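Summary: Need help interpreting a holo structure output

Steps to reproduce:
1. Submit the protein chain below together with the SMILES for zinc ion.
2. Request a joint structure prediction with the ligand placed.
3. Inspect the structure token block that comes back.

Expected: a single structure record containing both the chain and the bound molecule.
Actual: see attached output.

Input attached:
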Amino acid sequence: MPKFIALKSFTYNGKALVPGQVFDREGARWDERLLEKRYVYRFEGQEKSLVKCADCGREFESQSVCDSHMYMHIPEPKVAPIQKLEDLHPDGLTLKYGEPIPADVALS
Ligand SMILES: [Zn+2]
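--- attached output ---
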């Protein structure tokens, strides 16, 4: 069975595909429709040149496509909680964290 390359994220026979992923055609009856609708195109490269993502095992047609897929595996950055109001407004505000902000202080 030839392989396809996914152009979008979608689910194929229960598998979550991501853009650039090379996957096996499973003879699903909507394969032709996927081609028509440009969800996929035919993989015409060499199978031995496929690059496997070390994180999720998905296969890609080249290292650069695999690299650009890696963003999926970067965890959301944790936003550090603001400890002091001075961190927000470093020039001259001396309020302590937790105190109400006076109405005449404009936070920029
Ligand atoms: Zn991956």
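--- end attachment ---

Reviewer comment: Residues 53, 55-56, 58, 69, 72-73 surround zinc ion (CB under 6 Å). The mean pLDDT is 84.
Status: needs-info
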